[in-house]
Amino acid sequence: MIYLYIRQTVADYARWKEGFDRHLSSRQAGGATLDAWVLRNVENPNEIVVVLGWGDVAKAKLFVQSGSRQRALRKSSPYLHREIWRLARIFAAL
Questions:
Q1: Alpha-carbon gap, residue 61 to 75, rounded angstroms
Q2: In this structure, what are the phi and psi dihedrals at residue 34, rounded to the nearest 5 degrees?
Q3: Tens place of pLDDT for every residue, the chain, 94 residues?
Q4: The CATH number, out of the four listed (1.10.8.590, 3.30.70.100, 1.25.40.390, 3.40.1160.10), of the domain defined by the range 2-88
């Protein structure tokens, strides 16, 4: 399992979340699994971390560069900072 770790600061969390929810079918069509977490910074609620599961690293890379993703970002809240990592799960802590 591959995970995309996306850390970003958005201008408006509520608007961003609406766009994120609307984009679910596009993420799944691009290879995303139902493994998804959205986390917010308790001191800055517009700073978020999104962790998305993917079955294939090549599909995850393509999705990051996809036109569908870019269009969804333009429609949702503008981001002020973003970093994206591709991670592989090594083990689950007990």
A1: 21
A2: -85, 0
A3: 899 999 999 888 998 898 889 888 888 888 999 999 999 999 999 999 999 999 888 988 888 887 665 666 556 656 666 788 788 877 776 6
A4: 3.30.70.100
Whole-angstrom CA distances from 40 to 52, 61, 78 are 15, 24, 16
CA–CA dist 24, 26 (Å, integer)? 5
User: ∠ CA(1), CA(57), CA(75), 5° rounding?
Assistant: 105
Which stretches of the chain are DSSP H helices?
Answer: 13-22, 24-29, 57-65, 67-75
In the block, residue with structure tokens 């509520």: 14
